[in-house]
Amino acid sequence: MISGDLIIFALMCVTAVNFMRYISTLRALIFVMREAHPLLYQQVDGRGFFTTQGNVVKQFRLFNYLKSKEYSQHHDPVFVGKCDKVRELFILSCALLGVTLLAAFSV
């Protein structure tokens, strides 16, 4: 039989790996954004996005931009692809976190 602790540990590992994939893809998006959409890069504070002095309001600007799919009409297919991937990985990471927390409190 598989113990509950093993299931929670496996879920935590999968969630951590997907969160690292999300952060890595977000960094790649910000790098591509510098050339593809310089105005948005400035609005989300691209240079200071991952620093401790990063402005949370500007980070929410990127979240809302991705949530509302404002990038769908952009001319650069690489930028649109990166935005889609970041959005999908964010949704996956949130869902996995929810399942992991649900499993942790139910076992």
TrEMBL record:
It is a multi-pass membrane protein. It comes from the Bacteria. The chain crosses the membrane at residues 6-24, 89-106. It is found in: Cell inner membrane. One of its GO terms (cellular component) is plasma membrane. Keywords: Cell inner membrane, Cell membrane, Membrane, Transmembrane, Transmembrane helix. It holds the Pfam family UspB. InterPro entries: Universal_stress_protein_B. Belongs to the universal stress protein B family. This is Universal stress protein B. It comes from Vibrio ezurae NBRC 102218.
